[in-house]
Specification:
Elements lengths: L5 E5 L5 H10 L3 E5 L2 H6 L2 E4 L4 H10 L3 H9 L4 E4 L1 H6 E5 L11 E6 L9 E6 L9 E6 L3 E5 L4 E5 L9 E6 L2 E4 L10 H13 L1
Parallel strand pairs: 1-2, 1-3, 3-4, 4-12, 5-6
Antiparallel strand pairs: 6-9, 7-8, 10-11, 11-12
The structure holds glutamine.
The site of glutamine has 11 residues, from α5.
Length: 202
């Protein structure tokens, strides 16, 4: 029997604890990642929701941005939710001028895309690869995916209302991202999918 994957949660800022609980629930070993040593010890990384501008600033000032990019380039699986999706995007619209990302996902994301009236909302979305039951998706000042390159697999879109068709879940190889926060609902199917990506990558 192989040991469970050790999945790190980038713990600079954001809802770290919620991701730790979800990852533990799906049978992963979990570790907070705050340093180069932490990063070198994990098989994969979750980048939590929070505030991408702050996360970017802290990653730069802690000297972690370039090592994060290097880890991603050398094949570390990564999953980003909300601010984490922004951190994994190659291009960000409405970014702060000094905002940098880890990148790797050939997508353009728009920060705070859903506008003021619907700062936060919840809706059910069918997600490719997690079974037929829709995922209850919680959006909090969420980004959306404005455009995606040919290598990007669209896993989910908003299904109803003015924003129907908007891309909110994507995968590209070992990188996974959602605009919403599956770590907040108790439905662990997205984390299960990520843990499976990690297991297969080993
Ligand atoms: N609006 C935030 C940002 O730009 C993301 C919000 C979230 O992660 N809930 O980083």
């Amino acid at each position: 029997m192989t040991s469970p994957p050790l999945i790190g949660v980038l713990a600079l800022q954001g809802d770290v604890r919620e991701h730790e609980s979800a990852l533990s629930a799906v049978g992963a070993e979990v570790k907070r990642v705050r340093s180069l040593v932490d990063l070198a010890s994990v098989d994969a990384l979750v980048i939590p929701g929070g505030e991408s501008t702050t996360m970017s600033k802290l990653a730069l000032s802690d000297g972690l941005m370039e090592p994060l990019r290097e880890a991603r380039r050398s094949g570390m699986p990564m999953y980003g939710s909300c601010a984490g999706m922004i951190m994994l995007a190659d291009r960000v619209t409405d970014a702060r001028p000094d905002q940098e990302t880890i990148g790797g996902l050939d997508i353009t994301v728009r920060r705070n895309a859903f506008g003021r009236q619907v700062d936060s909302f919840e809706t059910d979305i069918g997600i490719v690869g997690v079974g037929n039951d829709p995922v209850h998706a919680v959006f909090i000042r969420a980004p959306w995916v404005e455009s995606a390159g040919p290598e990007v697999e669209v896993l989910g879109t908003i299904e109803n209302g003015d924003d129907a068709g908007t891309i909110v879940a994507v995968r590209q190889g070992l990188l996974l991202a959602t605009s919403f926060h599956p770590e907040l609902t108790g439905d662990h199917r997205i984390h299960t999918m990520f843990a499976e990506i990690v297991r297969r990558s080993r």
